[in-house]
């Protein structure tokens, strides 16, 4: 196709040929797929592992559940029954639906171990009461707290999200600007870098006493601290990305007639984007930490506040419930950032994996 | 000034260029890299510069491109002195140096964007993609391209600014032997289509004889142009013709002797 296009032009002498085609975009190899599906025979082990684990969890729970009032264990009993039900449905459905089968084959060890771990937790806490109460409630108690306190938990999550986002956004924005300035301009680098190196490593949470005094409202000072925590890694990584822009890209751009704006915004910044994302991830981790600490110290809302409040009443079921919500919340935010990165760095696909 | 839309070439004048760099082992002393280089290229001429590695060929190209400045001497495009990098002098490196974050099409139009003329000239992008036969790969990213295709994209990117002089710094040096021969024809085709003045740095003697109107031979430490040879063979040239092989032997012989001296 390529050659026809060129030789079709009469005014130019026909090129001998063009270079070889690039490696074609990954075409699914039909044979490979068939081989894979052939290999995906329904192993009894893979099919039964998850339902069996669920049954084990169910048996453990039923052995001890009579000991406590039905109200306390009711939701968890239902929950375990649901797990058993879903796992049986999945085991049967994968027989007829291949995509599910390959997914289940991949996930089956994780599911099995997770469900067994749930059973073990039940056994150690609720069953044999090996761990001191009230610090280590069983899964039934945690689930009950999760359900009974859902309104407050949802509200706390919402407040945490708002605080996290406002602090993170400000930190990223300021961090990008200062990082670009420090990375690009030598005089700014001379003054900015020492300051960054001295002030940056102080954990944002160490500023809490000062922030409480300076700022009129706890929310504002918490947002400021989160921004500070995010600002440092974002600035550092952006600056290093910008200043490590390959000189050859800048040279090429100059010979194409590029001015300073083009060199900064269309060469140095795109070249720094992989680095910038590392900074964004580090900043996100720092922001979670700062958020929770700030909420448990000064701010009167959010998941961090909820945890310390529940702890104050020795309601450890609620503490664990909040931790579960936090895990789900933070990993969702992290996953979203990964998705954004994959979107922005398509041009890099296959070059870097992390 | 002639409008940029017309393919136009310009002469290139290099007068008594000297350039030294700090010696790597002792920064207080300096090492003379180019010692009074003088030559000129007529408009539309294709001239090769060959010589051993480290003789200052690439340094000379960077000076002409305006990326570095000479210690003394004069560089002229037509009658204008060279002070800065500019779009009227295209430069293609051995590494295509395509911007990996841009698609092939966006890479090729980079020069138009940089000069802020994309809107007026966007139809030229298609023309140049067709010229180098990459229109199918317009939306591919550079990491999908083979070495030869990437280098053709780099050529189109340099040519879209209609440079008066195109500087080629071993542009085919990283390609395998077969691809390289095909790309030599490709560059000749582009040269014939655009009639741009071209200065080609290479250390492939066959490539120099096959492509150029004249060959300048440099020797190193410090870099000097020792000899200039006009190639009067008709194009397309036969790589195994008697005249070709005689020129080749002549140049090899000269480089060998110059190396001994």
Topology of this structure?
The complex is a heterodimer of chains A (354) and B (261).
Chain A: H1 2-7, H2 30-39, H3 44-65, H4 70-93, H5 98-127, H6 139-148, H7 150-184, H8 186-199, H9 208-214, H10 218-243, H11 247-255, H12 260-297, H13 302-312, H14 316-344
Helix pairs in contact in A: 3-4, 3-5, 4-6, 6-14, 7-8, 7-10, 7-12, 7-13, 9-10, 10-12, 11-12, 12-13, 12-14, 13-14
Chain B: E1 12-22, E2 30-41, E3 46-50, H1 57-65, E4 72-77, E5 80-81, E6 89-92, H2 104-108, H3 110-114, H4 118-131, H5 147-159, E7 165-169, H6 177-194, E8 197-202, H7 205-211, E9 214-219, E10 224-230, H8 242-260
Parallel strand pairs in B: 3-8, 3-9, 6-7, 7-8
Antiparallel strand pairs in B: 1-2, 1-4, 4-5, 9-10
Helix pairs in contact in B: 5-6, 7-8
CATH class of chain B: Alpha Beta
Low-confidence stretches of chain B: 1-6
Q: Please provide the ordered H/E string of secondary-structure elements of chain A.
A: HHHHHHHHHHHHHH
Count of β-strands of chain B: 10
The domain tally of chain B reads 1
User: Mind telling me the CATH class of the largest domain in chain A?
Assistant: Mainly Alpha
What is the number of independent domains of chain A? 2
Helix fraction bin of chain A: over 70%
Based on secondary structure, the structural category of chain A is mainly alpha
Terminal residue distance of chain B:
47 Å
Beta-strand proportion of chain B: 15-25%
Large-scale geometry of chain B: globular
Which stretches of chain A of 5+ consecutive residues score pLDDT under 50?
A: 1-28
| Sheet with most strands of chain A | none
């Amino acid at each position: 196709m390529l050659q026809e296009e060129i030789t079709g032009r009469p005014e130019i002498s026909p090129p001998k040929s063009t270079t070889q085609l690039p490696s074609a975009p990954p075409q699914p190899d039909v044979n490979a797929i068939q081989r894979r599906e052939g290999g995906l025979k329904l192993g009894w082990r893979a099919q039964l592992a998850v339902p069996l684990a669920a049954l084990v969890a169910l048996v453990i729970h039923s052995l001890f559940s009579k000991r406590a009032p039905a109200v306390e264990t009711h939701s968890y009993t239902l929950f375990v029954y649901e797990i058993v039900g879903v796992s049986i449905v999945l085991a049967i459905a994968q027989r007829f639906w291949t995509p599910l089968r390959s997914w289940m084959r991949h996930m089956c060890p994780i599911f099995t171990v997770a469900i067994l771990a749930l059973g073990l937790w039940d056994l150690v806490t609720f069953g044999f009461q090996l761990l001191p109460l009230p610090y280590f409630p069983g899964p039934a108690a945690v689930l009950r707290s999760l359900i009974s306190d859902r309104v407050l938990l949802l509200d706390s999550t919402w407040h945490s999200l708002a605080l996290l986002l406002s602090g993170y956004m400000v930190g990223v924005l300021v961090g990008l600007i200062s990082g670009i300035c420090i990375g690009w301009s030598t005089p700014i680098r001379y003054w900015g870098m020492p300051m960054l190196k001295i002030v940056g490593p102080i954990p944002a949470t160490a500023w809490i006493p000062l922030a409480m005094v300076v700022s009129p409202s706890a929310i504002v000072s918490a947002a400021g601290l989160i921004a500070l925590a995010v600002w440092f890694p974002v600035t550092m990584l952006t600056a290093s990305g910008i200043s490590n822009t390959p000189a050859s890209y800048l040279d090429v751009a100059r010979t194409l007639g590029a001015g300073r704006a083009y060199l900064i915004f269309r060469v140095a910044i795109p070249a720094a984007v992989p680095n910038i994302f590392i900074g964004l991830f580090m900043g996100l981790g720092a922001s979670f930490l700062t958020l929770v600490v700030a909420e448990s110290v000064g701010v009167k809302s959010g998941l961090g506040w909820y945890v310390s409040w529940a702890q104050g009443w020795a309601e450890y079921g609620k503490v664990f419930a909040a931790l579960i919500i936090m895990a789900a919340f933070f990993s969702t935010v992290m996953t979203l950032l990964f998705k954004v990165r994959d979107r922005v760095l398509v041009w890099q696909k296959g070059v870097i994996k992390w | 000034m002639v409008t940029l839309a017309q393919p136009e070439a310009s002469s290139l004048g290099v007068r008594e260029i000297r350039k030294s760099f700090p010696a790597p082992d002792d920064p207080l002393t300096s090492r003379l890299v180019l010692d009074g280089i003088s030559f000129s290229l007529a408009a539309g001429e294709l001239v090769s510069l060959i010589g051993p590695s480290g003789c200052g060929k690439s340094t000379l190209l960077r000076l002409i491109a305006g990326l570095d400045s000479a210690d003394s001497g004069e560089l002229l495009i037509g009658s204008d002195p060279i002070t800065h990098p500019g779009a009227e002098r295209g430069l293609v490196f051995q590494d295509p140096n395509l911007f990996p974050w841009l698609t092939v099409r966006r890479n090729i139009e980079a020069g138009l964007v940089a000069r802020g003329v994309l809107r007026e000239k966007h139809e030229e992008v298609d023309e140049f993609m067709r010229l180098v036969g990459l229109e199918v790969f317009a939306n591919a990213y550079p990491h999908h391209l083979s070495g030869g295709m990437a280098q053709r994209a780099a050529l189109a990117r340099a040519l879209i600014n209609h440079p008066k002089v195109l500087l080629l710094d071993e542009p085919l040096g990283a390609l395998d032997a077969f691809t390289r021969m095909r790309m030599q024809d490709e560059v000749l085709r582009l040269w014939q289509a655009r009639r741009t003045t071209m200065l080609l740095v290479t250390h492939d003697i066959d490539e120099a004889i096959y492509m150029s109107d004249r060959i300048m031979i440099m020797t190193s430490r410090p870099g000097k142009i020792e000899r200039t040879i006009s190639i009067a063979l008709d194009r397309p040239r036969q790589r195994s013709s008697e005249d070709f092989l005689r020129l080749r032997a002549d140049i090899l012989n000269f480089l060998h002797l110059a190396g001994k001296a």
